[in-house]
Amino acid sequence: MTTTIPPKQHEKPIKSPCVSVCALDINDICMGCQRTASEITAWGKMTNEQRREVLQKANARAREQGLLS
């Protein structure tokens, strides 16, 4: 017998990583949260899975910039 796990239908939306330091650099990346301008714009329409992907990318950008160790 196989058990399937239903999708998380009642999962709360992942909150925005905005830290109210909203300034884009020359690459259109926010210096506060490390999201691109298009990621910031699309955030409200993203699924939690998409938001997790953006958070991973933003974390990688922050590490590349030396903002995280």
Which regions contain 5 or more consecutive residues with pLDDT less than 50?
none
Averaged pLDDT, please? 91
How much strand content do the residues show?
under 5%
Quick one: overall form? elongated
The percentage helix is: 25-40%
Head-to-tail CA distance between termini = 46 Å
**How many discrete domains?**
1
Please identify the structural class as seen in this structure: mainly alpha
Radius of gyration: 15 Å
Largest sheet: none
How many helices in DSSP terms? Answer: 2
Would you count the extended β strands for me? 0
Following the backbone from N to C, one meets helices and strands in this order, namely HH
Structural summary, described in words:
The protein is mostly helical and 69 residues long. The longest helix is centred in the last third of the chain and has 17 residues. The mean pLDDT is 91.
Secondary structure layout plus pairing:
Elements: H1 37-42, H2 48-64
In short:
This protein is an all-alpha fold. The chain has helices at 37-42, 48-64. The termini are far apart.
List its traits.
2 helices, 69 residues, 33% helix, mainly alpha
